[in-house]
Amino acid sequence: MVKVDLRSDVARTRRFIERRVRRYPKYVNIGPGADEDPIAQIVLGYYVADAAYISLIFDTRPDADSDGAWTLFLQDETVLMFPKWVAAGDALCDGKAVELTTLRGAKKVLVGDEGCDELVALIGKMLADLM
Known about the structure:
131 residues; alpha+beta; 3-stranded mixed beta sheet; 36% helix; elongated
């Protein structure tokens, strides 16, 4: 059975965010907008499927909007991969069970499409709570 522990995932995510913020370059922005403009929006995006990841993108466009432009800047520096999320998604699509440990340490067994939806929702909640 595939196991996903959100407690370790949130710790990795926190370190990734701290590193991205600390290393934010003043004049070379890997994100939408001009390098020299101030940050207008910070996007913490995620994807849970074929290549599960989170991404932290700094958007310096004066009219920054939630328009998906961040997806054009997925590079090694801006992405943190989560292979276990892919394995969990694959298992759920194949009708297998996945054991998920929540941030509070509770264990849940997820199954099928509903389990996949719950996995995505719990990861989203983890990220929202972290920010």
